[in-house]
Amino acid sequence: MKVVHDTITKITIPTPFAVGDTHVYLLKGDRLSLIDAGVKTKEAWEALKAQLKNLGYHPNDIEQIILTHHHPDHIGLVGEFRKADSLAGHKNNDLWLTRNEEFFKRYVQFYRDFFVASGVPKSFSGFLKKLEEPLQYAGEGKLTTLLEENSHLPGHSDWQVIDTKGHAQSHLSFFREADGAFIGGDHILEHISPNPIIEPPYNGEERAKPLVQYRRNIMKCLSLGISTVYPGHGKNITNLDGLVPAQLKKQEQRASKVLQMLQDGEQTPFQLCQKLFPKQIDKQLDLTMSETTGQLDFLEDQEKVSKAMHDGVYYYKVN
Question: How much is the average pLDDT of 61-85?
Answer without folding.
Answer: 97
